[in-house]
Amino acid sequence: MGRKWGVLAAVGVVAALAGCGGGDDAGTDTAAPPATGQVTEPGPFFGQCGSVTDDEVSTAFGMPSFTGVTRNSVGCEWETAGIGGPSVTFSWYRGSPIGRERAGSELIGRPATDIDVQGNPGFIASSEGILCELGVEFGGDFIHWSVMYADARPAADPCKVARDLAELSVSRAK
After folding, report:
1. Which helix (H) or strand (E) holds 109?
2. Helices and strands of the chain, counted as H and E runs
3. Is the pTM of this model over 0.90?
4. Which pairs count as long-range contacts for 56-61, CB under 8 Å and 24+ apart, including other chains?
5. CA 39, 51, 70, 85 torsion: positive or negative?
6. For residue range 40-50, what is the model confidence (pLDDT) as tens digits?
7. β-strand 120-127 against 112-117: which pairing, if any?
8. Quick one: how far is CA 2 from the chain centroid?
């Protein structure tokens, strides 16, 4: 057991020393300059839950009644069977690049395709006909709809549901 702790201590010391730098340029400031944020014009106002009602979400989703609806300042989630079950999620990102959301989708195996929603660029990505996410960009802001049927039999094409809900949100934006 003592040897194990000795090896762990040695690894810790080496890691600490490696982080301190060294070499001929020790003491000089080689840190990259801080990144400057890009200021963009704010996009339109979407209202609570993307200005879409619970009944409209329920009709588009086509599943049994929602057992939970969560609302907060950045979005809403409608669930039919609790966390991990079939759900619909709306999120509104202000001052955040849509490319990060798109890249995240692609990293987990859902290749994104470019779309246009009422003249606004965006992306759509899906997985096995049970999950679809759709993002629509508005300058430095974007909205995101995610439709997941989980292990339930899909009542509708999740990408059609996401597209229909995004169309409603965009048409009601102020």
Report:
1. none
2. 4, 7
3. no
4. 56/165, 56/168, 57/88, 57/165, 60/88, 60/156, 60/161, 60/164, 60/165, 61/86, 61/88, 61/147, 61/155, 61/156, 61/161
5. negative
6. 778 899 999 99
7. antiparallel
8. 46
